[in-house]
């Protein structure tokens, strides 16, 4: 039976990938097909889905800093959006009830508001998957979306306590003492090394955090998130996240399949779910309006609102709980399962075009910006730079250090990871914060003295987009980039990038040339 799940997931995932759509759409389709064919899920599938979500929340924690949650644009936008959305959708539900629309005609004010509350959450799974695939987790809009999702998780915990009446145990107060054992957890990760023990340690901490919180009556997923946050500042946090990535992605396939097993819909259910799916346009507009009112830039507000404009798997939990309590009819669980699935598909397709959409509509979007943007969003101009390195990960940082030794202060670095930039600035490095795919940045940045821009980014599509923006901003210098595969190298060169370094194949050449220098002096001395 397990092979049938894998077979359908593989075939459907590959099919949608061949038409340039995210594989998760195929996994959702596979779940509905399996359900239609009468194949019943087992507890194994639920276990896989639960482990996948737990690992995903642990990974979120590894990239999150608590102070980000305390920012006004995070908590204010989250609470305002959930409150306003619940009222708006509740009113819309009553309007549909007055029009005698199917399923809505049985709703009252309380149940309509409850469905609105369920739909106010955005999907952590969908958003995280898209941000990871696009390499935007540490960008300004990525961190903002991440903070909003975590705040929504906190609201979810409060709701579950209120709805179920299960008050956490008094032992839950002891969870605040986790901060005291943080040095012990850090030491444990230090001792794990870099091999197979590192991902095993991550699994142990993620699942252990889940079980610990669950035992004291608190949502287990929150425990995985908290344990990840405790390790966020550890030197191995990024390495641990990468070691867990494949496990997490594999287990999450179980989650997407499980959505399709919720129930089989009728035509009227599909019609109602499509109407609800269309309402995410209002969800986008509300997010965008709130974020711009909180003085965020138009681009940040646009991208954040776009990726958060979907419905959450948590909405299914809210409705399932409401059905079990007799508040809603069971048909609503099927309707919302479809709406969640449709919203995943729409977000996955549209967000891949998000930067292109912004470039085409940036003038209209900027009109909604506040004249006084937040200080954190003010652009910096690199000092006396002839060479600019975009992306300061392992490859970019290595290039930055090498060029600094060769040309001195004439090299500058830029990265979308604000924490990384702060640490390098504290070390008096010539670096500044910036998102390479930000069209506003290149328009406002003076690049007249920059002779070379090096794009040390892991995703070839990002480098291509930046190269296009640079040329549109009248940059006249040279552009270099890195690639992992030959087909990526060909695409980058076709996009107008002057030089592309394949660090898988050409790293061996550099290694050989530098190592040869170890024996050349000996040969020269023996010859004399």
Automatic annotation (TrEMBL):
Pfam families from the UniProt entry: Na_H_Exchanger (PF00999), TrkA_N (PF02254)
Protein name as catalogued: Transporter (CPA2 family)
Q: What does the UniProt keyword field contain?
A: Antiport, Ion transport, Membrane, Transmembrane, Transmembrane helix, Transport
> Localized where?
Membrane
**Family to which the UniProt record says this protein belongs:** Belongs to the monovalent cation:proton antiporter 2 (CPA2) transporter (TC 2.A.37) family.
Q: Does the keyword Repeat apply?
A: no
Chain ranges of the RCK N-terminal domain = 387-502
Which SUPFAM superfamilies does its entry note? NAD(P)-binding Rossmann-fold domains
Topology class, membrane: Multi-pass membrane protein
Question: What's in the GO CC field?
Answer: membrane
Domain Cation/H+ exchanger transmembrane residue range list? 6-349
Give this protein's Gene Ontology molecular function annotations: antiporter activity
Among the GO biological process terms of this entry, one is: potassium ion transport
Residues spanning the signal sequence: none
Residue ranges crossing the lipid bilayer per the database entry: 42-62, 74-99, 111-131, 143-163, 222-238, 250-267, 273-291, 303-326, 332-351
